[in-house]
Amino acid sequence: MAYINQDKSSWYFVVSNGRDPITNKPRQIKRRGFKTREEAELAALEVELQIKRGEYFQGENMKFQALYEEWIESYPFTRKKSSTRNRKSSAKHLLNVWAQTPIHKITKQVYRQYMNSLVSKYMYNTREGIHIVAKMIFDYAIEMDYINKNPTDNYKLPKNLEYEENEEKLVFLEKEELKVFLQIAKDEGLPNDYEFFSLLAYSGMRIGEVISLQWKDLDFQNSSLSITKTYYNPSNNKREFELQTPKTRSSMRRILIDSTIMELLKELKEKQNEFIKKNKRLYKDQGFIFTCSEGYPCTIKQFSNRLQRLLAKMPDLCKHITPHSFRHTHASLLIEANVNMKVISHRLGHSSVATTDEIYGHLTRGLEKEASQKFSELMRDLHI
How many Å separate Cα 317 from the centre of its chain? Predict the structure, then answer.
């Protein structure tokens, strides 16, 4: 039987919902804000009927902030720190809007309106991150019987024009531009610059994968290397790095490397060995290839700064080049060389050829046109 009463501003009800299976304490459902006693009684009756039918969800009035905090508490147990950090960053957008909103009030319509409002504000990848974390949070709410429907279900992220345009404008170096850059790195670069950026360009690896490379990952006899880990260091403190598993399972791969690059790395190994002998007390040898003077891996920020220093020596290059641009450069040059897309996908560590085609497929259109023209020329003398 519901308890109905009135406070200074409105009527409210309290309904018993049995006992908590863990604490054995009585559970009560309390709602206020009704203008009349009759409204409170009808609402209480509806809740009692839901309880009897097993349709009442205990977390119906839970605030989104509380739901998020409960979800994020268990999320890191099975995830990498980098993943948790990204999820927290995406969730901030949701908390800014719904922190004190009861989760049952975040309906499909409310969710869609909010997500659609972000199209003009954020790039597709940012909105995708927000959508993914929202789905995780509401999936958790369903799992815990707090709600019975996930408002994120069946929502399809719209692409904005800016995103579609940028898809067509992957920033990479042309062959001649890369040649000039590497020559500058060789002649005017800091120690390890030439070797590092050469490997980055000739392998298509992500920068975190290159920084985490250790000598044991190289097979000089077969001119190959194994990619089994990636570098994680959000603080940019060289001593506080972590080695994590790569981005996806398919990112763990073995690839062939040009023999000239392997020779460069052999020479680098010899230089490093000499340096270690002279600086045994200072150098903490952990087997990394690209290190600072103390043996710790160079940070991503360090190589990003080194890159900008070298690019400043190419004033005519009107492109925003980042370490990731070398990955795009590698892919674009392979496509230009008519390398099979499946081979390219493996070298880049993509989960499928479809992923590679989605990112770089537009680069093949010119080649398709060229192939069509060559075929036409070949068949020109054939009279049917």
Answer: 29
